[in-house]
Amino acid sequence: MELKGIHHVSALTAKAPENFTFYTEVMGLRLIKKTVNQDDTSVYHLFYGDEKGNPGTELTFFEIPMAGRNHDGNNSISAISLRVKDDAALNYWEDRLKDHGIETEGIKDRAGRLTLAFRDFEGQRLILVSDEKNKGVAGGKPWSKSTTPEETAIIGLGPVRLTVPTAEPTIQVLKELLGFRKSGTYRAEVTGQPDIIVLETGEGGSGAEIHIEERTDLPQERLGRGGVHHVAFRVDNEEELREWIEKVKTSRFPNSGFVDRFYFKSLYFREPNRILFELATDGPGFDTDEELEHLGESLALPPFLEPQREEIEARLKPLNTKA
Description:
alpha+beta, 5 helices, 17% helix, globular
């Protein structure tokens, strides 16, 4: 049993159509699945990724139309990283984002890699990270119809940063329960705060890292649009997931038990700093119910929601996709 890396990250948006425009047209990602929140079918759940939504490339958004803005703080997933091929790609992105009126922090080193931090139109905290020095989990394959050139395209999810008031309880769960290992530290971005701790799993590298930032100066985050709901880690298959479920239960963490998301199988639980973790299988995949060429073009519903299709579609606002 070994987690293979980051599977996906799920965030919140209040405006699904604008979200679709930003992440497909500006960021060049492919909308690989247009579906609904299985817990509230009146709103979208959008999945973006590489050419087929390979595990480790999926950035997803729950639409919460009435969500207030996110109030950044502790007990949070405070930054999502997106991997690009090399350092030169960051120069391209710095210019591209500027052309779209998006301010960046400029290219800077984080944990020995060059990065470019910025926020999306709702304040979502994003960091582009160069894979030039990466040794570990391979990235995905850019979609051939992306709005960005293949050589500079986003190839997957990079390190996910957690911000917590006390790092040790989260580190303990990641290391002792989930099998992560410490691989380094780097200087905090805020003067007077402890170094940021880097943990990795599986083959390691940017696609398998969690960065833990301990902050003693922040209130608890109030989650809203522009915030992150949960991070998911890769499990090879359903058999292994069921072993993880037993391990989490034995450790006495309240948890969801086995959850069938149709495109993957999952387990959810919260670690001591109240951050929501998911363990998710690599398969079956997003081409289970749609042809690879047409992923994301029409509303996809898992079989148990298909009888409600007409009612569900009537409540959703069009995204200006081909459907």
